[in-house]
Amino acid sequence: MVTGYLRETSMAKINDNGILREANCSEELMAMRDSLDVLGGKWKLMILRFLTNRTHQTIHFKKMQREIGGISAKMLSKELKELETNLLVSRTEQDTKPATVAYAITEYGKSVLPVTETLVNWGLSHREKIIESINKF
Fold first, then answer.
1. Of 65, 98, 107, 112, which shows the fewest CB atoms inside 10 Å?
2. Which residue, 103, 3, 122, is CA-closest to 58?
3. pLDDT greater than 70 at residue 3
4. Which residues does residue 13 pair with via DSSP β-bridges, in sequence order?
5. Between helices 73-85 and 44-52, what is the axis angle to 10°?
6. Is pLDDT of 134 > 50?
7. Cα–Cα distance list, 97 to 90, 93, 94, 103, 135 (Å)
8. For residue 101, what are the β-bridge partners?
9. pTM of the shown model
10. CB-based burial, 79-110: b 16+ in 10 Å, e otherwise
11. pLDDT digits (tens, 9 = 90+) for 26-55
12. Residues in Cβ contact with 108 at an 8 Å cutoff, skipping those fewer than 6 apart
């Protein structure tokens, strides 16, 4: 018998026969590795969060580089290509003189929103905790 708790945890997996079973540790670690391969690094989650917060704007490369701050053009280009390869970001060439390119988060890319939201909340909470800790001394 499968408990309600198991159904609600990340440990719950459906096998090929449609039967709920518990995932083993190596499956979870492989899934974590896959996630980190796609989202890991200093910039990818920041780029996705930036695009998520600007879904109703046309975002060009230079605007993104300026507003994210600290990322080189070479690194931004590399990260955008990888995010595009993984279907998280779309790239649209616009018919202008000079040619311009617009970037946007894809519907699939929006599936990363809970991850970025959790990281933002944790970061704010952590910053508060550290400031509180410093002020005690």
1. 98
2. 103
3. no
4. 21
5. 80
6. yes
7. 21, 11, 9, 18, 55
8. 93
9. 0.75
10. bbebbeeeebbbeeeeeeeeeeeebbbeeebe
11. 888 899 999 999 999 999 999 999 999 998
12. 87, 88
